[in-house]
Amino acid sequence: MPQACVEFEVADAAAVADAAAELEAGGHALLHGARLEPWGQTVARLLSPEGLVVGVSHAPWLHV
C-alpha cells in the first residue's frame, strides 16, 4: 500500500505525455499513462520501489 504521493507539476499537458513516455522508455512501469481527469488535471503516475506514488501532472489553474 502506498505511503505517500508526490506530484511534479510541468508546463503543459503535452509535457505530461512526454514525461510518461520517457519514464516508460527508462523501464518504469506506470500505474497509468497521461490522462485527463474530470476536474481538468492531466496526470501520469507510477509506484516507486519505495512504495511512493509519483505523479507528473499539469493543473491549468496553477498556470494563470
Keywords:
globular, about 60 residues, 1 helix, alpha+beta, 4 strands, 4-stranded mixed sheet
Structural commentary:
With 64 residues, the chain is α+β, with helices and mostly antiparallel strands. Helix content is 20%, strand content 41%. The chain is built from one helix and four strands. It has one helix at 13-25, and strands at residues 4-9, 30-36, 42-47, 52-58. A four-stranded mixed β-sheet has the order 1-4-3-2, with helices on one face. The longest helix is centred in the N-terminal third of the chain and has 13 residues, at 13-25. The radius of gyration is 11 Å and the shape is globular. The termini are far apart. The mean pLDDT is 95.
Q: Would you kindly provide a brief summary of this structure?
A:
The protein has 1 helix and 4 strands; from the N terminus they run βαβββ.
What secondary-structure arrangement, pairings included, does this model have?
Blueprint: E1 4-9, H1 13-25, E2 30-36, E3 42-47, E4 52-58
Parallel strand pairs: 1-4
Antiparallel strand pairs: 2-3, 3-4
